[in-house]
Amino acid sequence: MTLHDDARRVLTGWVAPDDAQARLRDGYLAHLDAYPDGMWKARREGHLTASALIVDPVGGRALLTLHPKVGLWLQTGGHCEPGDATLAAAALREAVEEGGIDDLELLPEPVCLDRHEVKCGGPDLASVHFDVEYVAVAAPDAQAAISEESLDLRWFPFDALPDKTDDAVRTLVARAAKLLG
């Protein structure tokens, strides 16, 4: 099974939490139908990405990274790579690389989808990220380590996220907190 096949399988089987998320899922599937290379950064019309919100449910907190290109606090994540066997594996790889925590437990299903425009090919090369968002659970005593892909890395209480984030991250954190209850 290819990564493209896995993405179709995951999205087809995913139960969206609301109508807006169901429409996004349908758009992601249409993108994959239109572009056999729709998983890869080289596809300028857009490509799937995988992210993971790292959480400590015991402490009621989320680990966010200050993204150097957009200047916002975001969940860990990024582009799929040829070595990624599944979307979940890509999300977990990104979480470990960017959060510096090796023993994360990735929840098996995505929590949200978020489609956004980015300049991942340079300032004049806009593209679309079709982000598939997972949750990765860390131990309460997990020690994060900042990577070269981030300006900063910090734990934030679920109910006290930084001002410099966006509504998509706030939605992801709220859904993760509710899920982990």
TrEMBL record:
One Pfam family matching this protein: NUDIX
Coiled-coil positions: none
Domain Nudix hydrolase: 45-178
InterPro entries, A to Z: NUDIX_hydrolase-like_dom_sf, NUDIX_hydrolase_dom
Top-level taxon: Bacteria
Protein name as catalogued: NUDIX domain-containing protein
Organism: Yinghuangia soli
